[in-house]
Amino acid sequence: MKLASLNNGTPDGQLVVVSRDMRTASAVPTIAATMQAALDRWTQVLPGLQRVYERLNASDCPDAWHFDPTAVAAPLPRAYQFLDGSVYPSHMATVRKARGAIMPAGFETTPLLYQGNSDRFLAPTEPILHAQDEGYGIDFEAEVVAVTGNVPQGTRSASARSAILLLGLLNDTSLRGVIPDEIGRGFGFMQGKPARTMGPVFITPDEAGPLWDGRLLSGRYVCEVRGERIGELDPGIDAMFGYDDLIAHAARTRDLGAGTVLGLGAIANLDRRRGCGCIAELRAYEQIEQGQARTPCLRFGDDVYLELFAPEGTSLFGAIRQRVGRFVSVSG
């Protein structure tokens, strides 16, 4: 099943069910008004949502309309919690090697995970706006996220798999010129991680078929910057931990509420030929191999395109298509 949130001018949007081919959609106000409302009552609303989905796919939904990815908000425009990890060792090793740093202790046995801002996720075609100059080092990070139901404290990895209700596409925007100072102060990310962007739709794990193994999602993840393809990655391989492991790690000392969004960090594969899932990693390779990082971070006017495809060429979530621009304060 595919779900989206129509941008209706409210902070949470209006929940809609989207057909498998992402051509039509239908609102479901009598089932759940918003995505968060559906997540809060997932067991109760799932059968009704599924019936609407089946009717859309059969072209038997009289209330359906043409689905326009430019008219949607993020599928979950704001979430109670966003947790992001770093589970791809080739990414960690490459960016650290380029700056002369070593891998963190225990990274192979204990997941790296932090809590980030989630009060607003950008829509898939919404611009990335920044008021400061381009020296802040604007970058994208290609990710896939999982969205959970309620997770009790102490949940183990095996049980955590059933808590994964939805999957989605994410651009985890980073400011590379800000992050080092923040990390160096020992208190984590804040200003270096601005608003993130979600793809047009969320899907239930069963919608991915064999691409979903219960822990990770596979596929061909295309990353383009300024019209140039820099990555065709597979998020389902080369990861040290799955979503289940990160959920269990986060739930070690607390409950996780329904609607928790959880990412695995910038996707990276061991096969160098697959390219990169962020500019920082590409620059790190350039530094290591050529002695100088040549590819610039994102500049005002640059475009970013991210999309994940099944082997037959079907898009799982639709595309993130953004342009970087200068933020202008309405207050001056």
Structure, briefly:
This protein is of the alpha+beta class and 332 residues long.
Explain what this protein looks like in three dimensions.
The protein is globular. The protein is an alpha+beta fold. The longest helix has 16 residues, at 42-57. Helix 3 (89-98) crosses helix 7. The chain has helices at residues 35-40, 42-57, 89-98, 157-160, 179-184, 243-250, 279-290, and strands spanning 2-6, 14-18, 24-27, 65-66, 82-85, 113-116, 128-130, 138-139, 142-148, 164-171, 174-175, 197-198, 202-203, 220-225, 228-233, 261-263, 303-309, 320-326. The chain folds into two domains: 2-71, no CATH class; 82-326, Fumarylacetoacetase-like, C-terminal domain (Fumarylacetoacetate hydrolase, domain 2), CATH 3.90.850.10.
Which helices and strands appear, and what pairs or packs with what?
Blueprint: E1 2-6, E2 14-18, E3 24-27, H1 35-40, H2 42-57, E4 65-66, E5 82-85, H3 89-98, E6 113-116, E7 128-130, E8 138-139, E9 142-148, H4 157-160, E10 164-171, E11 174-175, H5 179-184, E12 197-198, E13 202-203, E14 220-225, E15 228-233, H6 243-250, E16 261-263, H7 279-290, E17 303-309, E18 320-326
Parallel strand pairs: 5-16, 7-18
Antiparallel strand pairs: 1-2, 1-13, 2-3, 3-4, 5-6, 8-11, 9-10, 9-16, 10-12, 14-15, 14-17, 17-18
